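Dear support,

I submitted the protein below through the web form. The confirmation email said the job was done, but the results page showed an empty box. After a refresh the structure appeared. I'm attaching both so you can tell me whether what I see now is the final result or a partial one.
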Amino acid sequence: MKQVLFFILFSCFAFSQSKIKSYALENSGNFEGNIERVDSFPSKYIVPRTVDVWLPKEYSKSKKYNVLYMHDGQMLFDSTKTWNKQEWKVDEVTSQLMRENKVKEFIVVAIWNIPNLRHMDLYPKKPYESLSKEFKEKIQIEAKKSQFPFDDSKINSDNYLKFIVEELKPYIDKKYSVFTTANHTAIMGSSMGGLISIYALCEYPTIFGKAACLSTHWIGFREFENNPIPESFFAYMEKNLPEAKNHKIYFDYGTQTLDAYYLKYEYRVDEILKSKGYSTADSRNLKFEDENHSEASWQKRINIPLEFMFGKLIK
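What the results page shows now:
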């Protein structure tokens, strides 16, 4: 019976993989290194979307690479194609760090968002479910006043993580020359991408060994009086954050625009990290004065979490 079940599962996986058609992007000088793209990655969990895989210029199948999964993939490499003409400059910064021998070599798996689904894909479901009916109703009212489309029946973050863990990661592990264990696998994002990254580490601690969360959007939507959302995230983290030593966690925040609303909550992040045994050896929660909530700000400092997670002195 087990053999039959294995055959069925393997056949389904093989069929799914057979539908994936990747191609190399032509580099017109807008990025450094090489990018292979899947225009519509098939999934039974989420709406299919583009996935880009960035490879170092000297990528070789003769050696193994670490893997960094990143959200909002369309914002990472080419500002000529982004809605706000900003980018993270992941390719330039990573290439420079590798040339300077400051980090272990890694590839970047860039998962594009679908704008009208982004909030529901990235909002951590279990913290929301822990709230009382009264708080949920309050959030529904406040969400309608914000720019974020919200329907609690459509929170899809658990399925988004299943897509990464059960569908995307097996494809990456098979197609590319990479290490597959947690201590070589990281996940990173900003704003809502920060929330889903720490959620991923908590839900799948044996898959992801490192998480970097920039300008984490603790307020959920917009700030409002007696907002229960931040504490729902913190209570979840207190219960589910893996103990230190086997994981590395990076948080940061600016002081301008949306980031200014996070300031009064950052002490809770520090408390939780300390209570779980994290120290400066395996965690950070850094403040960047006068930086705001934008790709322009994040690209100025992404070298810090990249070195923290993949630095040559890091095991």
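Response: this is the final, complete result; the empty box was a page-load delay. The mean pLDDT is 92.
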